[in-house]
């Protein structure tokens, strides 16, 4: 283990948060042997279409989802920021609050990882954090794309190597594959079908109560 507890986080639109996110975060918490994994919902997403509901609702659903999970927590800095959400800004803000020596790990699904070259200032991320890319059904690595050289250059195979420094490495990791997406859940709700068991019951209740995603 490193001298200081690593900070492990997963950013996302969480529109809504679902069991694919939560199970990924929990398995990583156990595998990395850290006390918590933090979920950071985006405020104004810049890489995708406008979310199906407001940042306030998305944050509230993540809060409900982690309320009874001691090993998961939520950080509202992107939702509360006045500026649009950019990972580069979030990483700089985390580095500022956590200090220069603490390992920071940014967790992302393989779909997000393979799309990194489209993110603002992505080539600065490894100067601020490690990246852990987790397999996601439908997105395989290696693939013949722009991330190959990057991955080959920075990839490490063990967590010991990650903890030797505060930032700068990439890990590719496979967890229980769960083919759940928020898109699928929004579509089910809009069609009047139940998304139950794909997401926590409390989140489904919240969606119904606030009539999100076209729930009638
Ligand atoms: P949408 O369908 O709206 O894009 P999503 O299910 O992909 O939603 P996001 O909020 O976009 O959820 O994803 C946040 C992060 O969680 C991303 O890094 C994404 O790759 C990862 N992720 C989402 N679903 C899964 C899953 N089932 N397994 C592993 N990682 C996931
Ligand atoms: Mg997504």
TrEMBL record:
The species this protein was found in: Nitrincola lacisaponensis
Key word Membrane present: no
UniProt xrefs under InterPro entries: Cyt_trans-like, NadD/NMNAT, Rossmann-like_a/b/a_fold
Domain of life: Bacteria
TM helices/strands, residue ranges: none
Annotated pathway: Cofactor biosynthesis; NAD(+) biosynthesis; deamido-NAD(+) from nicotinate D-ribonucleotide: step 1/1
Keyword line: ATP-binding, NAD, Nucleotide-binding, Nucleotidyltransferase, Pyridine nucleotide biosynthesis, Transferase
Reactions this protein catalyses: nicotinate beta-D-ribonucleotide + ATP + H(+) = deamido-NAD(+) + diphosphate
Enzyme class (EC, first level): transferase
GO BP annotations listed: NAD+ biosynthetic process
Job of this protein: Catalyzes the reversible adenylation of nicotinate mononucleotide (NaMN) to nicotinic acid adenine dinucleotide (NaAD).
Keyword presence, Transferase: yes
Gene Ontology MF terms in the entry: ATP binding; nicotinate-nucleotide adenylyltransferase activity
Domain Cytidyltransferase-like: 9-187
Cited Gene3D superfamilies: HUPs
UniProt-recorded name of the protein: Probable nicotinate-nucleotide adenylyltransferase
Entry's EC annotation: 2.7.7.18
Family per similarity comment: Belongs to the NadD family.
């Amino acid at each position: 283990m490193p001298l200081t507890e690593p900070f492990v986080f997963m950013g996302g639109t969480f529109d809504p948060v679902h069991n694919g996110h939560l199970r990924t975060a929990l398995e990583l918490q156990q595998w990395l042997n850290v006390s918590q994994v933090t979920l950071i919902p985006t405020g104004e997403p810049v890489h995708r279409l406008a979310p199906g509901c407001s940042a306030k609702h998305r944050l509230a659903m993540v809060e409900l989802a982690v309320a009874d999970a001691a090993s998961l927590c939520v950080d509202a800095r992107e939702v509360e920021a006045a500026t649009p959400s950019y990972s580069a800004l979030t990483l700089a803000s985390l580095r500022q609050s956590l200090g220069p020596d603490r390992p920071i790990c940014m967790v992302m699904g393989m779909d997000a990882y393979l799309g990194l070259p489209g993110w603002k200032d992505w080539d600065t991320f490894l100067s601020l954090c490690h990246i852990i890319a987790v397999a996601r059904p439908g997105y395989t690595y290696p693939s013949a794309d722009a991330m190959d050289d990057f991955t080959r250059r920075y990839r490490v195979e063990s967590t010991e190597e990650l903890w030797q420094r505060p930032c700068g490495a990439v890990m590719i990791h496979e967890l229980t594959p769960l083919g759940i997406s928020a898109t699928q859940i929004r579509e089910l709700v809009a069609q009047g079908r139940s998304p139950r068991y794909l997401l926590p019951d409390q989140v489904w209740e919240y969606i119904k109560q606030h009539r999100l995603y076209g729930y009638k």
